[in-house]
Amino acid sequence: MRDLHDVAKYIFINEEGEFRSGWRVLAFFLCFIVCAALLFSLTRAFATLFPSLSFLVIEPSSEYISRDVLIYLVVSNARNFAAAALSSAICARILERRSFGSVGFRLHRGWPRDFLLGSLMGASSLAIVVGSGVGLGAFRFDVQTRNWKSLLAGLLVTSSFFIIAGATEELLFRGFPFQALVHNLGDARAITITAILFGLAHISNPSASIFSTINTVLAGAWLGLAYLRTRNLWLATGLHWSWNFAMVFVFGLPVSGFTTLGQMAWLRGTPGAPMWVSGGSYGPEAGLAATAGLILSTLAIYKGGLFSASEEMLVATRHGKQEPAFIRVTPADDESSASATGSQGSERE
């Protein structure tokens, strides 16, 4: 019986007395599925009580942007974010004895800088990608609207949509699951695993291809490195939402195969030949220009020296028990010295 207990403990529990990282990741996604289902059920119950609001739970069959379609998109987007945030809070507290803020959206001293610089870098990276494509004749643009009221409405809707969507995906792919893997498996393995999963999560998108999947895996590594540089999700979310926002609102191009919000764009972009540059109907993310842009932006984050983790976030990300040596906040030598000093003081007393 003792041997069976030891085997079970080895399979499920690590040397820190926590569930192994794989089990923690599985628990997170199960929790997310349950939370998403519960929130959807609440929305459905609300729509049942008020039949005129049935569009809240019925996916629109048309891609034409109407008021009902916009509300559906906003509600489903907010519901997914709420499920991801709730799952993160539950798993962080119960499985690792830390706060929701430590997962990445803590309002620490440097968060506005990380978010704003990330937003600028994400939009600039996408602009360079599109500019490269224009130079090779892969894109054509026409002005879709000059009406400032329409532009303002489009700006507010698309920016809000992509900020919430970006924050949701960051919680799912660079939040608790990624951090659990980093804690126990190290940076390289965590980035590899989550970047591949990020790529596979987009493989069923309209017009997806092997090239688009490879670029999405690269984007997963780009965003994973952004977390590792700052130990928060503000930079990664800034990169993520602004890349998509610029692609849709500014250039009117498909984003990961979707074109719905392009009706609210300033420009109307038309991807053309060569397809290996423009990405065709999937959008720039399926083209070689995006590959180069993602690599350059990743190198800028890695080598540029613009970003670093604040002491507040380093402390916040610590688990309830002692950290493994490879991500220890306080150097082991310093702790040993402090312990030795304390022991000497006790002996003197």
Walkthrough of the structure:
The protein has 349 residues and is mostly helical. It has 13 helices and two strands. It has a two-stranded antiparallel ribbon. The protein starts with a helix and ends with a helix.
What are the defining features of this structure?
349 residues, 13 helices, mainly alpha, two-stranded antiparallel ribbon
How is the secondary structure organized here?
Elements: H1 2-12, H2 21-49, H3 67-96, H4 111-135, E1 139-143, H5 148-173, H6 176-185, H7 187-201, H8 210-230, H9 234-250, E2 267-271, H10 275-278, H11 288-303, H12 311-316, H13 332-348
Q: Alpha-carbon distance between the termini?
A: 48 Å
Query: What's the number of helices?
Result: 13
Helicity level: 55-70%
Shape: globular
User: Going across the major beta sheet, what is the strand order?
Assistant: 1-2
H-E string: HHHHEHHHHHEHHHH
Structural class: mainly alpha
Rounded to an integer, what's the Rg over CA atoms?
23 Å
Query: Roughly what is the average pLDDT, rounded to an integer?
Result: 89
In short:
By secondary structure, this protein is mainly alpha-helical. The chain has helices at residues 2-12, 21-49, 67-96, 111-135, 148-173, 176-185, 187-201, 210-230, 234-250, 275-278, 288-303, 311-316, 332-348; strands spanning 139-143, 267-271. The chain is built from 13 helices and 2 strands.
